[in-house]
Every structure is written in C-alpha cells, then in structure tokens.
Amino acid sequence: MPSTLPDDDTHALSAISSDDAPQLLTISRYIEVLLHATEAPLTAANLKKALNISQKQFNAALVLLQARLSEGVLELKVTASGYRLQIRDTYSPLIQHVFPQRQERLSQALLETISVIAYKQPVTRSDIEQVRGVTLSSNILRQLFDKGWIKEDGYKDTLGQPALLHTTPQFLDAFGLSSLDELPPLPDMVGLT
C-alpha cells in the first residue's frame, strides 16, 4: 500500500535548501511525467527505483509537485495501488457535460452488492443474498469480477464450502480510496425496518 501524501505546508517547502531545490524540482517534474505517461497508479517503490532516488528526495519532490499542481486542474492522489494524477472534482460537471458517454451507470443491484462485499468482507454469495433480501444474479458478480473489483479468496468452512468474496485494490482505485477505512460510515439503521 502506498504511503500518504506528505503535508503540503510552507514548513516542508522552506526546509528544502536552495542547493537542493533545482534537483528536487527536476525530480518532481520526472514524477509528474511518469504519472502522466501511465494509466495505472505508480507505487512509491516503483517511482524511487525508476528515478534512483532516496525516500527523503521522494518526499521532498512530492511536496514540490503538490505545490506546483495546487493552482492547476490536476491533483496528486494516493490510492491503494499507488500515486496518480487526476482532474480535480470541481471539473466533473464540465467533463460530464462535454463527454456524457464517459459516465458509467452502475445499477442499484451492482452498487448494493459491492457495498455488502466492501463493508462485510469476506462474504459468500448467500451472505449477500441474505443482506439484500433477493437472489443475487450471476451477471452482477460477473460484472464485478470483470471490472476487477472483487476476487475469490478462500472458502467458508461450511456445507458446500462456498467461495469467500473480497474487494481488490482496483475497487479502491475506482472509488479514489487508499483503504477500506476511508469508506463512509454506515447509517444508523435502528428504527428502520
């Protein structure tokens, strides 16, 4: 799992010596180029290895990159799979207006199913059906497997040994999360029946 982004504050920027600044600026540009050139997030280990830099240089370059991006339309984001550049959320309405085909509509059944898996994992198909109160379509599970959002990992020690379903780092990436801890809390269901 990637580390978190370093704090973007004036103290971190002021700690960079004037002798190191040109080299760190170049490193931050290289990181930006690599993140633009890939469709998948890059881990800190991959970036440090590719650029042959230390953790200290990497952290300082990330601070500089964040500072350089702070006035632009892109932001540096950390997900479960690594670092990536993405368009700031404030521009989503424009993108959706100009490129409506880019919006992917997820069915209510698919959202309910992935929610049950994310919050209650590991779960079996039967567990999902019990929570949702309806039979789970094989097509819904197939879509989640095809997107790479879920995986089978082990079997429940019960009659028939059903497969245990878990979410994947691709699920976290798709929703801009770095861990399951960032999922919103479940609403208080007391009194709702």
TrEMBL record:
- Name the gene that codes for it: scpB
Answer whether the UniProt record assigns the keyword Cell cycle to this protein: yes
Spell out the protein name for this chain: SMC-Scp complex subunit ScpB
Q: rRNA processing as a keyword? A: no
Question: What keyword terms does UniProt attach to this protein?
Answer: Cell cycle, Cell division, Chromosome partition, Cytoplasm
List the InterPro entries hit by this protein, alphabetically.
ScpB_csome_segregation, WH-like_DNA-bd_sf, WH_DNA-bd_sf
SUPFAM superfamilies noted in UniProt: Winged helix' DNA-binding domain
Short name of one Pfam family = SMC_ScpB
Signal peptide range in chain numbering: none
The record's PANTHER family line, in alphabetical order, gives: SEGREGATION AND CONDENSATION PROTEIN B (PTHR34298)
Species assigned in the record: Psychrobacter aestuarii
